Predict the 3D structure of the following.
Amino acid sequence: MANNKNPWIKYVVFLAIAIVLLVISHLKNNQFKQKRSKVLDFNKNDVTEISIYSSSDTVSFKQLNDSTWSPVEPDTGDIAERNVNRLLSSLTELEQTGTATENPDNFSTYSISDSIATRVDLKKGANTLASFYIASSRSSYKRGYLRFSDKNKVYRVSQNLTRLAQARPDYWQE
């Protein structure tokens, strides 16, 4: 009669151990997931002036009213509102996926040095909301890098902003 033990007990113990191992594995894998957070903190409706500088071109435009933008430099005619809206929406949704470097000696590796990268200035009247450099990732066309003008930290970001923030005046023409 000593063998009257429940035959299912070894299966229940095995299942419990498997569940515990699965939970531990899941928790360990979560620590390696990219932590995403917003990079820029501004309301796109607050932006009244945008300036974009590259090594070869410069473009600046101001908001005249809620939906009309006008070129400041160079004066090229009507501004394509859809391009402005796309840029501002992308900037407000932009997420950082990690840090590429904080060493200024490595800026050229990521094409994010002052002389190579594209600089974007966003203003609300006379106040600067954000000033930063952007560059494309060499390993993924969909991703890029961002560095604030007054900081050394280079963020990996979820989008390639260089295709949206072009310093070529003809890109912004209607």
Remarks:
- The helical segments are 9-30, 81-93, 169-172.
